Amino acid sequence: MSRIRHYIDLEKAYLYLGVYTLKEYPLDSIIWIISIILREITGFIGVLLIARSLDGINGWDFYAICVLFSMAMLTESLGQSFVDSVWSIGSHVRKGKFDTYLTRPAPVLMQLLGSRCNFQAMSTFTMALVILIYGWEHIGIPLTIGNILFVLEFIICGTILNTSIYLAFNSLNFWLVNSGNVAELALTFRQFSKYPLSIFPKLIIGVMTYMIPFGFVGFYPASYLMGKTDWNVPVLLPIVMLIVASAAGLIWRTGMKGYNSTGT
Amino acid sequence: MALIEVENLVKEYKRKISGEGIKDALYHILHPVYETFRAVDDISFSIEKGESVGYIGPNGSGKSTTIKMLTGILTPTAGSIHINGRIPTKERIKNNREIGVVTGNRSTLYWDVPIIESFRLFQKLYEVPDNIFRKNLEEFTEIMGLESLLHVPERQLSLGQRMRCNIAAAFLHNPKTVYLDEPTIGLDSESKRRIRTFIKKMNDERDTTFIITSHDFQDIEMLCRRIILINHGKVVLDNDIEKVRKDFDQKKKVRFEVENNYAMKSGEHCLPGVSFQYIDSYLIEAEYNTEEVDAMTVVGFVSKYCPIKDITITGRDIETIVQDILYKRL
Question: Which of A50, B253, B320, B330 has its CA 20 to 30 A from that of B203?
Answer without folding.
Answer: B320
